[in-house]
């Protein structure tokens, strides 16, 4: 799970740099904005999803 988190953070940083290139008009903003949105959405979803506690199993007799 830690590896996925690190990859998501790296993906967000890449998307931010890619978006800066879009602001400099080197890449189309039509491409960079959805990439940035999706990377932020997936990262926020991954880091805030509810990890539920399933409880203890009933002891057997």
Q: What distinguishing features does this structure have?
A:
61 residues; mainly alpha; 2 helices; transmembrane helix; membrane; transmembrane
What would you say about this model in short?
This protein has helices at 2-23, 29-48.
What can you see in these coordinates?
By secondary structure, the chain is mainly alpha-helical. The chain is 69% helix and 0% strand. The protein is rod-shaped and about 70 Å long. 5% of the residues are buried.
Mean pLDDT: 88
Q: What is the share of helical residues?
A: 55-70%
Separation, N- and C-terminal Cα atoms: 36 Å
- Rg over CA atoms, rounded to whole Å, is 19 Å
Structural class: mainly alpha
Domain count, please report it: 1
Strand content: under 5%
């Amino acid at each position: 799970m830690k590896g996925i988190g690190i990859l998501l953070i790296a993906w967000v940083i890449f998307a931010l740099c890619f978006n800066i290139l879009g602001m400099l008009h080197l890449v189309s903003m039509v491409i960079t904005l959805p990439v940035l949105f999706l990377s932020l959405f997936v990262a926020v979803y991954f880091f805030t999803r509810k990890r539920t506690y399933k409880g203890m199993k009933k002891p057997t007799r």
